[in-house]
Design a protein that fits this description.
70% of the residues lie in helices and 3% in strands. With 190 residues, it is mainly α.
Length: 190
């Protein structure tokens, strides 16, 4: 029974200890602690909201930076492409000009035909200078000699009044009538 009494007393001792603890803290102190805990929970929630807001702002800023970087990268690529196109056009124009000049010096009738027909495999543009045009043109003119102008003889002007022939092949009917009158008016002695 002693064990039973010890067991019976133990719950009472625990109950007594709780009661004593509850009574040992005064009510104002506990309410102060509860208020302080509530303040800390409020501050924690506010801090969590601030962290979320800052994280959202950081993400938006990073996205804006990324978008700006992408825009600048695309603009750079576009400008590089335009520059490459302009360089190609400049080189092509330089080569075409060199071909025209060489073709004129060779006596070619139509330089545009030469530009279209010339084999550009050996023609190169190096540091602002076009090389290989003379060789390519020589080969083209050897293969297609009809591209070179022939000797043109000047046509002499037609003798006669107003550029008309004297033989009367292009005579005016009035002129023929006038000539007839002149012949009939002359004496036959002559």
């Amino acid at each position: 029974m002693a064990d039973e009494e010890g067991k019976a007393k133990a719950p009472d001792a625990d109950a007594k200890t709780k009661d004593e603890l509850q009574e040992s803290f005064n009510r104002d102190y506990v309410e102060g602690l509860r208020g302080e805990a509530a303040d800390w929970r409020t501050k924690l929630r506010d801090s969590e909201k601030s962290v979320e807001n800052l994280a959202d702002k950081l993400k938006k800023f990073e996205d804006a930076q990324k978008s700006e970087l992408e825009r600048v990268t695309e603009e750079k690529a576009s400008l590089e492409q335009k520059l490459a196109n302009q360089e190609r056009a400049m080189i092509e124009s330089g080569i075409a000009t060199a071909i025209r000049l060489e073709a004129v010096n060779a006596g070619v009738a139509n330089t545009e035909d030469v530009i279209a027909l010339i084999d550009r495999e050996g023609v190169e543009y190096n540091d602002g200078e076009v090389v290989g045009v003379a060789k390519a043109l020589k080969k083209l003119l050897k293969d297609k000699p009809y591209l070179v102008k022939g000797e043109e003889k000047p046509v002499p002007p037609t003798p006669g009044v107003g550029g008309k022939p004297i033989d009367g092949s292009d005579a005016n009917p009035i002129d023929e009538a006038f000539l007839g009158l002149l012949k009939s008016a002359q004496p036959e002695e002559f």
